[in-house]
Amino acid sequence: MSVWDGLTGQAEAIEVFRAAAADSTLVDSPIAASAMTHSWLITGPPGSGRSNLAYAFATALLSDGTLAGDEVTRRQVAARTHPDLGVLSTEGVIIKIDEVKKIVASSQFSPSVSRYRVMIIEDADRMVERTSNVLLKALEEPPPRTVWILCAPSEADLLPTIRSRVRTVRLRVPDVAAVADLISRRDGVSLDIATRAAREAQSHIGMAHRLATNEEARRRREQTLETALGIRSVSDAVIAAGTLLAVAGDDAKAITEERDAEERESALRSLGIEPGGTIPPALRAQLRTLEEDQKRRATRSLRDGIDRIMVDLLSLYRDILLLQLGAPSEPINLAIMPKLVAVSERTTPSATLATMDAIATARKRIEGNVSPALALEAMLISVAK
């Protein structure tokens, strides 16, 4: 199985990285300047597969070229345990400067078992300027066998000085059919379910996987759309805001709860504590640190859950607007087509556009730390007008 098999809809980007990985040296090769470089930036919309491509490229760089060696490397990279792989991914809203300092220090080591040392920063757009400047120094003078791979939604999300020192590879949004085919093959679901999930996820690979394999996730999405469609008055809007906030909370809890339990169990096991056993006072500080990290992840997960609701609502009103304008485009929410038609007939295109503007405004407000409940109420009141 090739390291590129789990990717879809990115043939051009895969060819770029395949050619770079085929270059056996970083410095001495005559094609190094055109095929390989020491720092990369992978950009693309959420769900386009930025991190998946980054790890596939890392696997190709770290592999020794033998069948057995490639399989071992693939497993190590998937588990993030390869000795020559450094990974920085944040569970918080921003990447902390100490985290970047740590990975920069690690990047100075020589490879231990592979040709390269590969450092991956997911969500590099979450670095503030001061933190980015720490990384900048590492990109300006990297060790000869260290390769940096950054992932971000767009080049504009990074400092110009960072952008000038990386080779950018842009990903596109894969089409629904490609995502559905991947989900069907990889997750063993029917093509019909995979297609609906891919369409409703708007080709977001991770969300399509979740919708295709998790009935509760599908139910929560349906509840979101039903709640919005049921708004007729300001009081309905206020109640709906509370409902959507609860939906986002349930979604975030479902994502983090199982992972939190696994992390705690693993931490206790590593400390030599039996399940249900008493935690010695000297070890409680380590568990408190884990709990604080999990709280930060829960905060980010809730914010991400609210944003997913906003994206689903935008898809709903996008469908309604296209029906009102008579545009020949297949609705994203095809499963509720009769309800879309009913709403499109009783409202106007200008009202639908105003609602979509309100959703965009609410997203900006929440990003600026406005109370999600207040932002959702203000947004949904526009639906009732």
Gyration radius, in Å: 23 Å
Distance between the termini: 55 Å
How do the helices and strands follow one another from N- to C-terminus?
A: HHEHHEHEHEHEHHHHHHHHH
- Biggest sheet features: 5 strands, parallel
Strand arrangement across the biggest beta sheet:
2-3-4-1-5
Per the CATH scheme, the topology name of the largest domain is: Rossmann fold
Can you tell me the number of structural domains?
Answer: 3
Q: How confident overall, as mean pLDDT?
A: 87
Which of globular, elongated, flat, extended, rod-shaped describes the shape? globular
At CATH's second level, what is the architecture of the largest domain?
3-Layer(aba) Sandwich
Structural class label:
alpha/beta
Q: Count the strands?
A: 5
The proportion of residues in beta strands is 5-15%
Please mark out the parts with pLDDT under 50 across 5 or more consecutive residues, or reply none. 24-33
Identify the CATH homologous superfamily of the largest domain.
Answer: P-loop containing nucleotide triphosphate hydrolases
Helix content: 55-70%
- The CATH class name of the largest domain reads Alpha Beta
Output the number of helix runs: 16
